[in-house]
Design brief:
Strands 1, 2, 3, 4, 5, 6, 7 and 8 form an eight-stranded antiparallel sheet that branches. Strands 9-10-11 form a three-stranded antiparallel sheet, sandwiched between helices. Helix 5 (161-177) crosses helix 6 (179-189). It has two domains: 1-154, Pnp Oxidase, Chain A (Roll), CATH 2.30.110.10; 155-243, Split barrel-like (Alpha-Beta Barrel), CATH 3.20.180. The protein has helices at 12-22, 62-69, 104-113, 150-153, 161-177, 179-189, 227-240, and strands spanning 25-31, 38-44, 46-47, 53-58, 72-79, 90-101, 126-139, 145-146, 198-203, 206-211, 214-219. Helices cover 31% and strands 31% of the residues. The two termini are 27 Å apart. It is globular, with a radius of gyration of 18 Å.
Length: 243
């Protein structure tokens, strides 16, 4: 499960964006191609650098067949696990259109977050799809409701080509050479339990960490668009964590 954010700790749009970035799974709703009824299924999730939800799905799956006929879809991201009353927890539904993605960064980002997918990513029937977000509905508990727009949930990466190109190298470097700092990010800055946390992705606004079934989002002190700026931000965060 993901680590839920404390109620009131962020504005709804920032909270919603963090939920999407932390997510490892979501419920996907498509229109069934034969009955027309909504069809819900479980999918594993990563994000593109700009924040669009990313899935690796098989053409043999019902949801993929539905998407081919009608690309309109919705994803429910749920952070209510472990609560006595799930309705007090945070969740966000995003909707838009699904599009097949053929991008090396998509493959690298998904496999970094979901290593077991390497066992089937090259099967002929599997492909990456991303949801082009058109709108959302956020509920952070009773009385905390908003409708973030697509701009509230995504990140402008038009000026971050160098960062995106270097992302896989940054991820590998952080896990191979700075595992201690990554662990401190999780425990000291985000209040997570100790463990072998992995650095799985970064973008102009922050980075993402994973341990087992838990995803975390760590915001950078400032927006970054180059590998050098990422390094400076990570060093600063390391110092904040007491490393």
């Amino acid at each position: 499960m993901t680590a839920p954010m404390q109620p009131g700790s962020q504005a709804p749009d920032l909270w919603s964006r963090a939920i999407l970035r932390r997510a490892l799974k979501a419920s996907l709703a498509t229109f069934h191609r034969e009955t027309g009824y909504p069809y819900a299924s479980l999918v594993t999730i990563a994000t593109l650098p700009g924040g669009a939800p990313l899935m690796l799905i098989s053409s043999l799956a019902e949801h993929t067949k539905n998407i081919v006929e009608n690309p309109r879809a919705s994803l429910l991201f749920d952070e209510t696990g472990g609560l006595g009353d799930p309705l007090e927890g945070a969740r966000v539904s995003v909707f838009g259109t699904m599009k097949k993605v053929d991008d090396p960064s998509a493959r690298a980002r998904f496999l970094s977050r979901h290593p077991p997918a390497a066992n089937y990513v090259d099967f002929d029937d599997f492909a990456f799809y991303a949801l082009n977000i058109e709108g959302a509905h956020f509920v952070g508990g009773f009385g905390r409701i908003s409708d973030p727009g697509s701009d509230d949930l995504t990140t402008d990466v038009s000026d971050a080509a160098r960062l995106i190109e270097a992302e896989a190298e940054i991820v590998e470097h952080m896990n191979a050479n700075h595992a201690g700092a990554v662990a401190l990010y999780a425990t000291k800055l985000l209040g997570a339990p100790a463990g072998e946390w992995r650095f799985v992705s970064c973008d102009p606004e922050g980075c993402d960490l994973v341990l087992g079934e838990t995803g975390l989002r760590l915001e950078f002190p400032r927006r970054v668009t180059t590998p050098q700026a990422v390094r400076r931000a990570l060093v600063e965060l390391s110092q904040m964590a007491g490393n």
